[in-house]
Automatic annotation (TrEMBL):
<protein>
    <recommendedName>
        <fullName>Acetoin utilization protein AcuC</fullName>
    </recommendedName>
</protein>
<dbReference type="Pfam" id="PF00850">
    <property type="entry name" value="Hist_deacetyl"/>
</dbReference>
<comment type="pathway">
    <text>Ketone degradation; acetoin degradation.</text>
</comment>
<dbReference type="InterPro" id="IPR023801">
    <property type="entry name" value="His_deacetylse_dom"/>
</dbReference>
<dbReference type="GO" id="GO:0040029">
    <property type="term" value="P:epigenetic regulation of gene expression"/>
</dbReference>
<dbReference type="InterPro" id="IPR003085">
    <property type="entry name" value="AcuC"/>
</dbReference>
<keyword id="KW-0006">Acetoin catabolism</keyword>
<dbReference type="GO" id="GO:0004407">
    <property type="term" value="F:histone deacetylase activity"/>
</dbReference>
<feature type="domain" description="Histone deacetylase">
    <location>
        <begin position="22"/>
        <end position="315"/>
    </location>
</feature>
<dbReference type="InterPro" id="IPR000286">
    <property type="entry name" value="HDACs"/>
</dbReference>
<dbReference type="GO" id="GO:0045150">
    <property type="term" value="P:acetoin catabolic process"/>
</dbReference>
<dbReference type="InterPro" id="IPR037138">
    <property type="entry name" value="His_deacetylse_dom_sf"/>
</dbReference>
<dbReference type="InterPro" id="IPR023696">
    <property type="entry name" value="Ureohydrolase_dom_sf"/>
</dbReference>
<comment type="similarity">
    <text>Belongs to the histone deacetylase family.</text>
</comment>
Length: 389
């Protein structure tokens, strides 16, 4: 069935700009919306314009002292602490306002679903999953994902599943709900021995009442579409079926792509499209069709992010694009003025996304699969060694 879906967007999202040659360049958002528009994905869709999240909402996750530091940082660019003013997290003008607007976008998406106006909602500017309670981290000032989840917990949702497919561990969201059994966090990411932030081991499975509700699947460098999808299907569907979330929240970073300059997995745009379809199907099967999708990482600004997130928008809207869809000449002409890179002409990398379902022991990703399953499956009444679970 076709679900009611909302898209949250404002050009003001581009004000979250870390400046200079910083890899998190907002051009990736602009080019995504341009491509989705030119391909007709957004035809007839009323884009929802968010407002800045008020301090009271940001303080669901972040300390008031940290908010004060963020607000004052542009006037006090040195010695501010809280992870601000670093190479990863440079200080920029109107930093609080831009960051609060991203949070407002994810909150608006959550509100659309909670108040029954939509079954699905997407904000590609969101997904800033590394920010901690009292510090910026990994290009992220405020953690919009965690803020939206906290809001949902106070507005009718008692079981929320968060699935993070970014190449980096979803550490900030995990930390926010590490002892909370109402939130199941699942992160598939490049192995922490080989990539920042160095967390996301299978043994990080939650604490106290939250034990078993943090799930981490580390993947070896050079994992391709087939290995990634093998790992996903070996872990995620069983846990979501057992948990029975009332909504699925996803962080859809695309820095898993083979061309991404900051990491070492080897997925394709075709793999990303397949991941989104899997998430949509799991939302239907386990969460009553409720799905809140955010963006996240992705530093292939011109060749990767616009195509992958256009597929995300299309998937949320049930307007799936065939891989061989041609990219409009107007988009290519515009983007050519921004980069000397050779640009793709279709919405595919020509990759094969088929995979062999998991059975213990056969492929490079299986160590991460087995370790993740053995860490948490028994806590959910599942057999970690039985591929049928």
């Amino acid at each position: 069935m076709s679900r009611r879906a909302s898209v949250v967007w404002t050009p003001d999202f581009l004000s979250y700009d870390l400046g200079g040659d910083h890899p998190l360049d907002p051009v990736r958002l602009d080019l995504t919306m341009r491509l989705a528009t030119e391909l007709g994905v957004l035809e007839g869709v009323e884009l929802l314009v968010p407002e800045q999240a008020p301090d009271s909402e940001v303080e669901r996750i972040h300390t008031s002292a940290y908010l004060s530091a963020v607000k004052s940082a542009p006037e006090v660019p040195f010695g501010i602490g809280h992870g601000l003013g670093t190479e990863d997290n440079p200080i920029f003008m109107h930093m609080h306002e831009a960051s609060a607007l991203v949070c407002g976008g994810s909150l608006l998406a959550a509100r659309e679903i909670a108040e029954g106006r939509a079954d699905r909602a997407v904000s590609i500017a969101g997904g800033l999953h590394h920010a901690m309670a009292d510090r910026a981290s990994g290009f992220c000032v405020y953690n919009d994902c965690a803020i939206a989840i906290s809001w949902l917990l106070d507005h009718g949702f008692e079981r929320i599943a968060y699935v993070d497919v970014d190449v980096h561990h979803g550490d900030g969201v995990q930390a926010a709900f590490y002892d909370d059994p109402r939130v199941l966090t699942i992160s598939l990411h490049q192995h922490p021995l080989t990539l920042w932030p160095g967390t996301g081991w299978p043994g990080e499975y939650g604490k106290g009442a939250g034990a078993g509700y943090a799930v981490n699947v580390p993947l070896p460098p050079d994992t391709t579409d087939s290995g990634w999808l093998r790992a996903f299907h070996a872990v995620v569907p069983s846990l979501l079926t057992a948990f029975r979330p009332q909504i699925l929240v996803t962080q859809c970073g695309v820095d898993t792509h083979a061309e991404d300059p900051l990491a070492n997995l080897s997925l394709s745009v075709d793999g990303h499209r397949e991941i989104y379809r899997c998430l949509r199907e799991l939302a239907e099967e386990t969460a009553g069709g409720k799905w809140l999708a955010t963006g996240g990482g992705g530093y292939g600004l011109f060749r990767v992010v616009p195509r992958s997130w256009t597929h995300l928008l299309a998937t949320v809207l049930d307007r799936d694009l065939p891989g061989n869809t041609s990219i409009p000449p107007g988009w290519i002409a515009h983007t050519t003025t921004l980069t000397r890179q050779e640009l793709p002409t279709t919405m595919t990398d020509g990759a094969d996304t088929s995979f062999q379902p998991w059975t213990e022991g056969g492929e490079r990703v299986d160590t991460g699969i087995i370790d993740a399953r053995r860490a948490v499956f028994p806590m959910h009444g599942l057999d970690p060694d039985d591929p049928r679970d």
